[in-house]
Amino acid sequence: xxxxxxxxxxxxxxxxxxxxxxxxxxxxxxxxxxxxxxxxxxxxxxxxxxxxxxxxxxxxxxxxxxxxxxxxxxxxxxxxxxxxxxxxxxxxxxxxxxxxxxxxxxxxxxxxxxxxxxxxxxxxxxxxxxxxxxxxxxxxxxxxxxxxxxxxxxxxxxxxxxxxxxxxxxxxxxxxxxxxxxxxxxxxxxxxxxxxxxxxxxxxxxxxxxxxxxxxxxxxxxxxxxxxxxxxxxxxxxxxxxxxxxxxxxxxxxxxxxxxxxxxxxxxxxxxxxxxxxxxxxxxxxxxxxxxxxxxxxxxxxxxxxxxxxxxxxxxxxxxxxxxxxxxxxxxxxxxxxxxxxxxxxxxxxxxxxxxxxxxxxxxxxxxxxxxxxxxxxxxxxxxxxxxxxxxxxxxxxxxxxxxxxxxxxxxxxxxxxxxxxxxxxxxxxxxxxxxxxxxxxxxxxxxxxxxxxxxxxxxxxxxxxxxxxxxxxxxxxxxxxxxxxxxxxxxxxxxxxxxxxxxxxxxxx
Length: 510
Prior knowledge:
It is a single chain. This protein is α/β, with parallel strands linked by helices. It is 28% helix and 23% strand. The protein contains twelve helices and 25 strands. The protein has helices at 6-20, 54-58, 67-80, 116-132, 154-167, 172-175, 200-217, 244-251, 275-278, 281-296, 323-338, 373-384, and strands at 26-35, 45-49, 87-89, 97-99, 112-114, 141-145, 179-181, 226-231, 255-262, 265-266, 303-308, 311-312, 344-347, 357-358, 370-371, 390-398, 403-409, 415-420, 429-434, 445-451, 462-463, 483-485, 487-488, 493-498, 502-507. Strand 23 and strand 24 (493-498) form a beta hairpin. Helix 3 (67-80) packs parallel to helix 12 (373-384) and helix 5 (154-167) runs parallel beside helix 7 (200-217). The longest helix has 18 residues, at 200-217. It is globular and about 75 Å long.
């Protein structure tokens, strides 16, 4: 028979005590109510799509615009209480695309020709969003133009002149937020766009040359309409972050904002980031701290994260397409808004591990969407920060550093988002939320839950009881569910549980 010796029994007993008798985690949130951030713009959460992939997502002319994608973006609009999210059209493909209406042979390194069909695609999609909102809002774009030619802005100018002609008297600002010049110039050497001797001072001269020619030639181009920077950040060639102050001082009169790209993890060079790495504090906090420092150096210009996602170089399968990315994204965005960033564009589509929304038959405008976990994080965050809300101070004590809490205020009142990122535990955390002095208390609060079958789940996610699994039109499936949380007089607040690998948004009574 099977028996345990004394040493084995002792080890087994310790294991049993640790795993069976371990006390449940506690999270206590004492809200002070003091504002600690700017208002979160209602369209803070946006998209970024490569130039050739944008028509695949929107529905390429002459096909009709993709209604399901309009609906998915409209979901974000309705949750945030504001305009549609922006779509940035760019990425590495911005510097390998050119305006080519006559179908000429592509020059070296160019792989995509932009034609009037692309413009018609953008405008038809934007017009449909205006109709979808009952004439209140339309989606606007941030197109990236190429800057691969040193001191030769002719292709970018031709592209923008063609755009001006296509507008036919309509306002640039009706359809666009800003225009980018090139993508990640701090990596130009790495991408073989410039040689190793090209310096930051050369870049400044090149940028000035492009800006001068744009404003000289494109007569209706609005003032302060350039999205500045578009830097990758921690470059593989040159590290330009300390130079933000010099750049923005030189160009601030032309810039709508300053843009950086942020990816906490990398798949490039055969790195294989894990769920554990994505959910650690570094992945949620380090890049936002850098953004906050850049804002201090930007001469008052808004700072936006023009391209971002969980894992650079296309995303990591089994990480970027799971519930882990959902939880990471919410914590990441809260860290960004705490540092007063003004927008984030999640990159990807119509396929790939990190795409928030996928279309596998992109040539078919009726192809149903595959809504990935990241989209649920975008949706939950949009609701949590709706109606120009702002982050407020709270004293948070926790027995587990992977359980996060963020408090916001604004219409319809105080809210607390709890994110349980520790998938290694089995017990739910017991959350106690104590309101500030003078706030309404003594009555029930409500909670919306973000759930999934597990941290590796790619399907089965729900936000407030609703899912997008098997949604053919991009609209949520199921009834919206908000649970009642009674006031606990002994705790002087509300107590509720949040399971591991889930999140919850508590609505305090107002």
